[in-house]
Task: structure prediction
Amino acid sequence: MELPTPPLLHTHSAMKSTSSILLIKLFILQCSLSLLCVAVAQQDFDFFYFVQQWPGSYCDTKASCCYPTTGKPATDFGIHGLWPNYKDGSYPSNCDPDSHFNRSQVSDLISRMQRSWPTLACPRGDGSLFWSHEWEKHGTCSESVLDQHHYFKTALNLKETLGLLPILQSAGINPDGGSYSLSRIRGAIKDALGFTPWIECNVDASGNSQLYQVYVCIDNQGSNTIECPVLPTGSKCASTVQFPSF
Ligand code: AMP
Ligand code: AMP
Result:
């Protein structure tokens, strides 16, 4: 024979089940919110532009340049940046005002950064300002994929894998102040990397069009070179461009 539930106990268990239902609802809400966050995070950006810069073309302009406090950079392309981008050509920037460049997070990479990511801005500096600018403007927009250490390491590794100077030199394109056809430069890089790069030019103090920066597209994990979903809108080049010495 079943005993009637005492009224007090009944109320207590009713309260218990109401609160468990509430907890379950809260749990479901939290799950769907975090799923939403994951979905949003995955749509942060579509791909990266990895941008390398010829120091000779930065320095021989009217504005000139200043060598870093660590000395004249190597005669090699330097990193400008690793820039998250959207397929429609627009790009996010300054995505996390609370995230600042922190030398201690990249202390093991500093000597590689000094070698491969040299600042050329005036007044001369040790690179921190340039790296902070790149991290804060661009790096914070891919933070869901690459934390600060990973971001700088990825760029440094890309520079080593995609070494442009040896590619150009083996195609007979040398930083000797000579003129080269843009299609020859583009073709040499395409043949070596398998993907068409975007070449950006600037002008030297006498107004000659010259090879300034090379853009290569990287997937949104920072892992593989890809065909560019959209080409950048950087300054156009003449059909023949100079490759200044440095
Ligand atoms: P970004 O905003 O990432 O496109 O970078 C553009 C800014 O970086 C401009 O203010 C440039 O003058 C500066 N910049 C470009 N190359 C260098 C370099 N090698 N060293 C220091 N600043 C640079
Ligand atoms: P600069 O020519 O060095 O003054 O750079 C032009 C500015 O535009 C820099 O601040 C870049 O960060 C920005 N920029 C231009 N095009 C792109 C792009 N496609 N993706 C990311 N940043 C870009």
Remarks:
- The longest strand covers residues 209-219.
- Confidence is low (pLDDT under 50) at residues 1-16, 35-42.
